[in-house]
Amino acid sequence: MSRKVAVCSGKFRFLLLVILPSLFQATFSAPQAGYGTLKLKVGVMFGGGEVRPVARVDFYALTKDLNMISREAAKNLNLPSMEPFEGYINKQNNASAEFRAWIIRTHDRGFASKGGRYDFNRVFFESDANKVTLDDLLNVPEFRKWLQDAVGASRSLPRFPRPTGNSAEDEKLWADYRQKLGAQMTEEDYRAGKRPSSWMIEMIENVSKDRSNLCYNDEMALRTERIVEAGVLLAPKYSAGSAQTSLSGEAEIRLPAGTYWLSNLTGSFIGGSSILWDLKVVVEPGEVTNVRLSNDNAKEMD
After folding, report:
1. Which of 38, 92, 222, 302 is most buried per CB count within 10 Å?
2. What's the per-residue H, E or C state across 214-236?
């Protein structure tokens, strides 16, 4: 899965990549009779081959993996981890049906993919069926209202036509307005710089500023964060044993024989990076199992 799935921040991307892809792929194993020992050696390799021990970090031997625990946490919260884009947008009642349809049509360059910050160049100037058109501005109520209220001394926008009561005159005024507004939209592609005029940017920001719930990826990332946080609180319930690493990154855990998942539950920050483990291990009765945790078997390093 690509790292750019999450759009808001490195933190959100880490949460999405670590937990979300396998919420429905988890297993469970009951411990067997007898005890064994896990000996941990935890270190992270950085550039130049330097290995730094992961010191003073608690590791847990869990009887369920983090994905299964997160699934249980989501169920407890009654919060689905993901929701289809169109279905989610169409449930948001703080936007008109026309605005929701426009978002769905242009979502690859708007609310969905930029964390609520539009890629203005693509939205306004790409010559394909999804670009913002003059009809969008005049038929989407949110855009139309902004245009009606936007004319001021500092703007060069044409004045929004008011009905005169004369149908022929109204038709002429409306045609003239469309022509002038269309010219303002392109403005020779903003003097050949292929950038939208400042009023277009102001319009989109004004219309979207109170509708952050329409930023689909942001909302899904926040939802995932809630599930992860709930999963971290739930995880100790499934801990069969735990230990804190020494300054040299070593620890031992004595456990009933069985299958476990070794995890530090939340990303440990080492040298500016965050690293999480959720490694499946098998403890045999009467035996010592040596486990090295490193970059290679980490869940994610960001």
Report:
1. 38
2. HCHHHHHHHHHHHHHHHHHHHHH
